[in-house]
Amino acid sequence: MDETSGQDAGPFSGRPSELIGRRIAGYRIEREIGRGGMAVVYQAKDLRLDRTVALKLLAPELARNDTFRGRFTHESRVAAAIDHPHIVPVFEAGETDGVLYIAMRYVAGRDLRHLLDREGPLTVTVAARIGIQVASALDAAHDHGLVHRDVKPGNILVAQGTDSDHPEHVYLTDFGLTKKSLSLTGFTSVGQFVGTLDYVAPEQISGKPVDGRCDVYSLACVVYEMMAGRPPFRRDDDMALLWAHQYDQPPALSAVRPGIPDAVDAVLAKALSKSPDDRYDSCLAFVSALRIAARGAATGGGTRPGAETGDVPGGPGPVPEPPAWARPVFRS
């Protein structure tokens, strides 16, 4: 490590530009490419293998928590062991100067958040094509006992595909910093989450045990947004949004975007069920059903039980009338 590595400042102090050109754990920082509340991602050069990588530096307070450090090490190893074409490969994870870091493949492209902001709603065909790649990645992670818990457009990278039949190649990223890791350390609690609340499953909000079906719900929120141009629920504040995920039925996609087959509404309703038991068992099962529905074929799913009466499937009865602060927001 060079002479700057021993400075008291540390990798997270000062302005981001101060890290450009600095060497950290065998990587030379070149530019910042992403930032969140608990981590910063840089494009960096691997000085040992002379390759470009994405280097994520986690906030220093996380490294000072022994529970998080243990969880981070375990989940990073699991993520690195997953060899899948739609999961960003993890090259290395470790600690240097009191900061945890993850080195991953650098993907030249943009994330789905930027794509949607620039191009607006996508066609059903494109949404399903992106969704099936994300679903495949999630199911592979579930097979390794890893639940992502933070599926959102910002964690889906869209790179150039191989040919006209595969115009985009999608990667799922950010397995190394899960909500489970943070909740075990006290950095999060019920009602406080890392990242946006637009895609969080009801059981995550209530603090119940989660499995891969919480990723089914989050993926369904992302797929809905890809086609509608907005997430299923929009509210004025976080508490109202949490209420909506737990109790409100999402607007039918066909009401937001005319021309969508009714069968697509039924598939999304099932994937967005409040109870995990009422959702698809896997992400691929959800997106496969969506593709069939989009072609106008019969899905056999019908209307979700309780959709007409307002009952929550698997719930204790009628949904309570939302208080004024939890009512929907309608914006043009």
From TrEMBL:
Ranges where the record places region Disordered: 297-332
Key word tRNA processing present: no
GO molecular function: ATP binding; protein serine/threonine kinase activity
Biased composition range(s): Pro residues: 315-325
Domain Protein kinase: residue ranges: 27-291
Protein keywords: ATP-binding, Kinase, Nucleotide-binding, Serine/threonine-protein kinase, Transferase
The protein, known as: non-specific serine/threonine protein kinase
EC number: 2.7.11.1
Binding residues for ATP: K56
